[in-house]
Specification:
It is a single chain. The chain has 181 residues and is an alpha+beta fold. It has a single domain, classed as Electron Transport, Fmn-binding Protein, Chain A (Pnp Oxidase, Chain A), CATH 2.30.110. It has 4 helices and 8 strands. Strands 1, 2, 3, 4, 5, 6, 7 and 8 form an 8-stranded antiparallel sheet that branches. A hairpin with a 7-residue loop joins β6 and β7. The chain starts with a strand and ends in a 13-residue tail after the last helix. The model has no long low-confidence stretch (mean pLDDT 96).
């Protein structure tokens, strides 16, 4: 059923690039800390190399992924086939957070469309790649991207987004440091 891969080859790349949705999971070190699982969309995921990927992280109500990565670096990304043959693909690895102003942010951000509300690029060094059958995942029809996040971010403007992030993204629910900027 499941298979482990040494790297992201062309068939895996094609599968990843076909998906409109992916999920990101992180957790703090502490036993009492909250595990975070976030859905992601838009044109926000890139394969940088056979064992390196990145995605855009947007201003939001929480900053769990960033805080967990700053604390311990552990991350898992999951893709599920919602159309076509069933399949689940998980990428496990170590992530780092690149905020605007960080040395490598601009070079990586140029690989994505410009979106108002981008607060970071999450770069992941992939250490394990594994798939599973996905037989229990239902089929869904893709209708298109939602535009509420982008419209909200555009309405806030740069100053409003900075203030929102200052108020909501400085630390995680567990009290871990979030955004630096």
């Amino acid at each position: 059923m499941g298979k482990v891969f040494a790297s992201i080859d062309e068939p895996l790349r094609a599968f990843i690039e076909e998906q409109h949705l992916f999920f990101v999971a992180t957790a703090p070190r502490a036993d009492e800390g909250l595990v975070n699982l976030s859905p992601k969309g838009l044109d926000s995921f890139r394969i940088l190399g056979p064992n390196e990927v990145a995605y855009l992280d947007f201003v939001g109500s929480g900053v769990e992924t960033i805080a967990h990565l700053r604390e311990n670096g552990r991350i898992a990304v999951m893709f599920c086939a919602l159309t076509g043959p069933p399949r689940i693909l998980r990428l496990y690895g170590r992530g780092d957070v690149l905020e605007p102003g960080d040395e490598e942010f601009d070079a990586l951000a140029q690989r994505f469309p410009h979106y108002a509300g981008t607060r970071a690029v999450i770069r992941i060094s992939v250490t394990r790649i594994a798939d599973a059958c996905g037989f229990g995942v239902p089929r869904f029809t893709y209708e298109g991207e939602r535009d509420q996040l982008l419209k909200w971010a555009e309405r806030q403007g740069e100053e409003g987004l900075t203030e929102y992030a200052r108020e909501n993204n400085r630390e995680s629910l567990d009290g871990l440091p979030g955004l630096r900027q």
